[in-house]
Model the fold of this input.
Amino acid sequence: GVDEMRQYKNPAVLMPERSMAVYAYAIFCSKRNYNNIHSSQYGIKAVVNNIYTVGDYFFIDFSLYNKTKIKYDIAELRIKLTDKKETKATNSQTIELSPVYSLNSAKSFKKAYRNVIVVNKLTFPNEKSRRLELSENQMSGRVVYIPIEYEDILNADSFDENLLNHLPYNIRK
Done:
């Protein structure tokens, strides 16, 4: 019907931002289930807490811990997909994605930062390796990244509706 046509033309209609916000907030308030995805650069430890799938989206919940005395200014948050089979000969294709939704709009942090971002599932082909990247806007621009393997994505849990029970009533769906 008309609705299907509208969804076809505009995939964003599939999940309203308000619903994304509710899911993202529920995940933000949940405990960490992933323990194997982390990296450290420039004294900043990056950790993936959870990856959930809801409908056509991945919700990636991650934290950053700053062990330095210099606060981190977030200029950009993006996801880079690069070819796994990277040889010097081929000009490897890097695709950059922006999240379709980001829960935390904080632009800097001193000690700890947590965010849940939403990415369209269709943008995650398996022959690519992906990394979540945060870059700073100063000259000293520290780029912090978290490598995410395809297996991690495959192991993403379906969103547990029980997580919504912990939310304040006024922001539930």
